[in-house]
Amino acid sequence: MKKLITFNLLLLLLAPCFGQDTEELKKEIKTLKEAVADYEHRFDALEKIADDNLWFSRMQDVAFVDKVYICGPPPAKAKNPTAMGAKNPVKFWSYVFIPKNIDLDKKYPLIVLPHGGVHGNFGTYHVHIMRELMAQGYIVVAPEYRGSNGYGKGFWKQIDYGGLEVDDVDASREYMCENYDFVDKDRVGIIGWSHGGLITLFNLFDHAEHYKVGFAGVPVSDLIARMGYYDDEYRDLYSADYHIGKTAKDNIAEYRRRSPAWNVDRFKNTPLLIHTNTNDDDVNVLEVEHLIKSLKAENKKFEYEIYKDIPGGHSFDRIDPKKSREIRLKIWNFLAKELNPPVRLKSVKDMAKAAYYPIKHEK
Q1: Number of domains in the chain
Q2: Rounded to 5 degrees, what are φ and ψ at 293?
Q3: How far apart are CA 55 and CA 72, in angstroms?
Q4: Which residue windows are transmembrane per the record (predicted)?
Q5: CATH classification of the domain holding 306
Q6: Residue at 295 is within a domain
Q7: CA torsion angle for 35, 39, 42, 43 (degrees, to 10)?
Q8: What is the pLDDT, as a whole number, of residue 363?
């Protein structure tokens, strides 16, 4: 984007040399930028289709993989609020992963897994994590909540960071509990990293009755602080007219409303584990420290670990080195205490097997 801006400035400076009116050139540049943005969304959609094929091929030996179309609340902002259908629920896709060797006459725990990223999506970055969850006998739903990337410009602009996307994610839980008899609605956990960690926290704050346990990894926790250490290109994703519409400086209360660290009074003491890393190059550790201090100040019960400069930075407990798997094993053990999955991964060796071979569940 910065290169495009530099190129635009160069064209404006050279415009008189070519006898072209500056205002006319500005209009052409604007049209060109809009066309490029539209093509970017089309390329993202193609990339998503390719990645979906990878999901099916890389999980086919251990899981039934489906993609279902469900509904969340109506749009946070409607371009024309009085138009027909303007108040209709927002439709979005959700991935469903079901271990191949389950007994359909039994009940199994459910994991809700919201992805991270501003305009991110649930990509095959998570394959080994998903295989580890399948090996334990979890059913998993991974919602592509409003604003996710790869579904067109209109859906992309439905983004509501820390807002109605939280309800989209809970709607995916509700869908699973209502439509799959082998899902145990009393054994539901929610886990997420980064932006997904923020969504996890808000679901525990606002829908605590639906979740038995939660894990928030390197969670975005304080949008006000975040706006302070990120650049304008990042800030513009939030202040865009189709999103929050104002900067943090102009509407600090709205950014606080969307920040878990400023809303811990709503936490109901659902078993919760929080991870952060001091060399995180995305969510600065100061955000998560604010969250931890706020929870402590409210006398909330939770567990946390602040890891010191673990390789991998923001992704330290999601990648595949031995140390990362050791840390991830702690997460699985924490969840298992509350969700009682059919199989427990007892060692890093078990996790390595899960990454490449199906683990047979005991009858």
Answers
A1: 1
A2: -65, -40
A3: 24
A4: none
A5: 3.40.50.1820
A6: yes
A7: -170
A8: 46
- Write the pLDDT tens digit of every residue in 56-113: 999 999 999 999 999 999 999 877 777 777 789 999 999 999 999 999 999 999 999 9
Domain extent at residue 336:
2-10+22-222+259-356
Positive or negative CA dihedral for 362, 334, 312, 144? positive
Q: Which of 261, 171, 271, 157 is nearest to 212 (CA)?
A: 271
- Dump pLDDT digits (tens) for 44-53: 999 999 999 9
Look up tokens 């509501």; give the residue.
Answer: 160
In a domain, 251, yes or no: no
Biggest distance spanned by C-alpha atoms of the chain: 80
Interstrand relation of 91-99 and 213-217 (parallel, antiparallel or unpaired): unpaired
Please give the Cα distance from 180 to 97 (Å, whole number). Answer: 12
Distance of CA 322 to the CA centre of its chain: 24
Q: Is 117 left (phi over 0), alpha (psi -120 to 50) or beta?
A: left
Strand order in the sheet with 183-193: 63-71, 91-99, 139-143, 108-112, 183-193, 213-217, 272-277, 303-307
How far apart are the C-alpha atoms of 199 and 216, rounded to whole Å?
Answer: 9
Return the exposure string of 49-79: e unless at least 16 CB atoms fall within 10 Å of the residue's CB, then b: eeebeebeebbeebbebeeeebebbebbeee
Neighbour tally for 2: CB within 10 Å:
8
Which DSSP string corresponds to 119-131?
A: T----GGGHHHHH
